[in-house]
Please model this.
Amino acid sequence: MELRQLAYFDAVVRHGSFTKAAQRLHVAQPAVSAQIRRLEAELGVTLLERTTRRVALTQAGELFLARARLALAQLEGARADLAELSAVLRGQVRIGATQVLGSLDLPAALAQFRRRYPGVSLALHSGLIAKLLGLLEAGDVDLVVGPVHDDLPAAYRACRAAWRSGRCAGRGSLRGSGAGTTPWRPAGPATRAPGSRRSAPGRGAPR
Model:
């Protein structure tokens, strides 16, 4: 069984004819017919009832169609994952982090990121939270990881609450953050790593 046979079968069902399916697939109509016959021979069942006017699914065809579309969808998902992985080619992510990060294992998170995106370099800046947030505002770092204090500016306290509910721009920057530890990132469009040739949306930081 070949993936193209599944794709041809799905196309015939979608378009209701071998001719239209072949046109959409940019292949010769006899090639589509031949692949469907081979598929049916391998499965030992008739998937399509053919008449001079229409093509209809048999009961076996209906059962097989659901499985075929699931397989095609999974393949497309795998392709999308690989495309996303290769989208980050070159660049740098500048991270500001305080000395105290609760239960967050920042070295492990950075190591995991480097394994996943070897073409992206990481620059780590450490210091007090006030200094780091100043660097963030100035655009000198791309994100800041640190504990939340009551004397933080209201915008960052709001970002902490939003991050926990999935509404903050920095959400997804770091996984496994410890209690009381929050990543901040400037709100706005998806971050692009400074100097990067391409950067996948929301992927410019450790995960």
About this structure: The chain has two domains: 3-86, 88-184. Residues 161-207 have pLDDT under 50 and may be disordered. The CA atoms of residues 4 and 35 lie 8 Å apart.
